[in-house]
Amino acid sequence: MSGEGSPSSPVCAATNGESSLELAATATEADVEQWVVLAQDGHAQQVLDATGSPDAFTGLPAAGRARLLYARALAHVMLGATEAATKTAVQLSAFCRDHGLPAQDLLARALLVELYRREGRLEEAVEQLARAVAQEGGLADVSDRQVQAALGALAVALRTFGVAEEARRVDERLSEVEAMLPLHQRVSRWSNVAIEHAIAAMAARRVPPFTCDQALLDRARAEIGKAVALADGGSYAVVADEARVIDALALAVSGDPQEALERLGEADGVLERGAEAIPARLLWAAARVHTLVRLGRPEEAVATGREHLSSIPGSGEAGDRGVLAYEALRAEHPEVEDAGTGAGAALALSELRARNDGALIRALFRARVHLWREVGERRSLARRASLDSLTGLLNRRGAAGPLQNACARPAGIPVAVLLVDLDDFGALNDACGHLAGDVVLQHVATSLRDLLDGQDVLARWGGDAFLLVAERDADGALALADAVRERVREAAEPGSADAVTASIGVALRTAPVEEADLVARAELALFTAQRAGGDTVAAC
Predict the structure, then answer these.
(1) Which of 59, 66, 142, 58 is nearest to 97 (CA)?
(2) What is the mean pLDDT of each run of 10 residues along the chain (540 residues)?
(3) Into how many domains does the chain fold?
(4) CATH number for the domain that contains residue 271
(5) DSSP state of 315
(6) Are 191 and 303 contained in the same domain?
(7) Which of 332, 352, 371 is the last residue before a domain boundary?
(8) Residues 403, 240: Cα–Cα separation, whole Å
């Protein structure tokens, strides 16, 4: 797609002299989303200039910083800087895993699939694609825009590797929320699919009976028509160019060749575009070579093919360039379609090798998907074994590792353990029933979870007891315990029969200690609080 940055856009701010550090101080998530669009829209270098210090964008949440890295990776792709794009995509994937952003991690993996493929690193591309497909099942909320973007990118990657059944399944998930997708994503989705199908239709000419797949080409025309209708004369100028190219291509293969040549002349503006239009430029050149051959001008066709093969930047995409390369070869050596010639035999062997390689890659992909899905299931089982089914918190088993790590922290780092026990909880169960007791435990768990930050550990220690592990000094630990006590009192409706209080025992360490010793001290403090009548805090 193509569009112009508005005067108030962050790209325009950068080109007007505002440094990336100045932009970092004021950038919003809306700015980042605009960078993602503009990176694909012919403004790749300006996006890189505007985001030149990604570590400085500390005011953005983790999801915003991930999108910033994605915008930079896309910009590198559009500028043909594959090595820089790969490095950024790897950085993005690691960032997403560290910050629990599965949809954006899948998006990074889908991008790595394409980048590794361009570099000829097919095994690594297959590995990333398999891991992405294995992750996809965990993205349940298709109404989430990040999930939508990830699924769209995954579908493209799957079609690229010829895994049609998986691509259709992902496309079906997206079709359920088509109307909810952002406009630029809907336009881009139909545009990408149309170009892919046009290329596949022309690729069919390399095997007997050496004719274009007309049904697939008709489908591409319908799809690019949807993209144009969605764009509705807006700033997506490249989509209009793509539509003109695909219409001219249809005439070139089965219509009036003279009219096709005229249509190609009307569509030659696509040749002035950058990396975002490389597939369309290659299709334009292939259509012109084919048309010139049909018009009996093979010498001109050969010269045209050679000119555009050398002038259109190499993307490493065998499918895209293969369409033009074959048309140029056929113009120069018409006997290539004769199985009795050396050229024909060489072509047949090349196509057979390509099909066999493709089948091998797809078999490897399915095996890796199966493996990663099994790994995911085992991890899921392990997580479930470490979680309390009632509250969703860690159970005693799940808390063992984090507790051990906290107790082993270096000297000088204070760590507090809080044992929280609900007062007279057995009486509440007897009076109100166990279902009411379960509801109270769930309310308490939710209330305490909301109180803590992401570094603290909260677990259901057993029965009506909870364990908290937090990096706090003595004053901080007591303040946290008081806050916990208040949250427990607020967890039930005021004045209701299931209102509860809690006794809390606090133990502190400032040097490495055995976790059993620290928990034992917290238990002693808890007994002290309970003997004091409950609803109180004691430290040991």
Answers:
(1) 66
(2) 42 48 75 88 87 82 93 92 94 92 95 89 91 91 91 89 86 87 84 91 91 95 94 77 96 95 94 86 96 96 94 64 92 87 76 73 78 70 76 89 91 94 87 83 90 87 94 94 92 60 95 93 95 92
(3) 2
(4) 1.25.40.10
(5) -
(6) yes
(7) 332
(8) 60
